[in-house]
């Protein structure tokens, strides 16, 4: 089986560039991985940006760059998947300051778009902070207005302070956006937020959330509510030099 190239329509629209992703099955040897990526990108002449998340340690960015003279290879670090298995909630008492909704006004949380420092969009200088912020503002808005199946909001001093967007599956809850507004950080809001999600869904479903390996605050938060790292992936961006690049 070959590595598959898949268009990313949402990313393309928001970034104003034709984007695609590479998806496995992935080879298990570095030489085979390099060959598989080179073959897949040979069919991506129309893409400006191709994204890949590969099993950690198999991709060699230097080897890829040497084999891909018409592409710029950006290694953006490691993404970690944190999982809490189904089980009883850890909170001692119900949280009455967190509410759940299918849709809500995103305005209070739009400033989180500037704080996603460990997202691959902010980490890639070729995208630039302005486009990264614009993309995250759009993502927060769409999740709050119904793309997420459920949105959890934690209040602090009566004001919206923490946000988690949920995608519900039969056996898991996947968290996409998790954030606490700057004025409320360091006051236990994030933990209350996640404990409320676990109390609502965590008995029968696993909790899955991804975070950059450099985001120690996120790792500490997820660990505090019972999540453990289960897998790690290298994150790579490939920029096409043939008339398409990150300068837009």
UniProtKB/TrEMBL annotation:
CDD domains cross-referenced by the UniProt entry: NAT_SF (cd04301)
Superkingdom field: Bacteria
Name assigned to this protein: N-acetyltransferase domain-containing protein
SUPFAM superfamilies: Acyl-CoA N-acyltransferases (Nat)
Entries under InterPro entries matching the protein: Acyl_CoA_acyltransferase, GNAT_dom
Ranges for domain N-acetyltransferase: 107-245
Source organism per UniProt: Solidesulfovibrio magneticus (strain ATCC 700980 / DSM 13731 / RS-1)
GO MF assignments: acyltransferase activity, transferring groups other than amino-acyl groups
């Amino acid at each position: 089986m070959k590595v598959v190239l898949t268009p990313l329509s949402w990313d393309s629209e928001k970034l104003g560039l034709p984007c695609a992703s590479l998806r496995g099955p992935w080879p298990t040897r570095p030489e085979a991985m390099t060959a598989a990526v080179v073959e897949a990108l040979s069919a991506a002449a129309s893409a400006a940006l191709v994204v890949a998340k590969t099993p950690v340690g198999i991709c060699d960015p230097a080897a890829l760059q040497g084999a891909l003279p018409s592409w710029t290879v950006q290694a953006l670090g490691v993404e970690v998947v944190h999982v809490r298995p189904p089980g009883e909630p850890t909170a001692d008492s119900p949280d009455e300051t967190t509410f759940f909704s299918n849709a809500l006004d995103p305005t209070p949380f739009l400033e989180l778009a500037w704080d996603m420092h460990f997202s691959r969009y902010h980490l890639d200088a070729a995208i630039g902070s302005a486009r990264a912020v614009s993309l995250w503002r759009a993502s927060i808005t769409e999740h709050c207005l119904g793309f997420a199946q459920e949105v959890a909001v934690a209040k602090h001093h009566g004001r919206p302070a923490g946000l988690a967007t949920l995608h519900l599956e039969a056996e898991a809850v996947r968290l996409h956006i998790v954030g606490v507004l700057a004025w409320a950080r360091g006051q236990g809001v994030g933990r209350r937020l996640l404990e409320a999600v676990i109390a609502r869904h965590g008995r029968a479903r696993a909790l899955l959330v991804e975070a950059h390996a450099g985001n120690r605050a996120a790792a500490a938060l997820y660990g505090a509510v019972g999540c453990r790292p289960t897998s790690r992936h290298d994150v790579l961006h490939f920029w096409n030099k043939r008339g398409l690049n990150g300068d837009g």
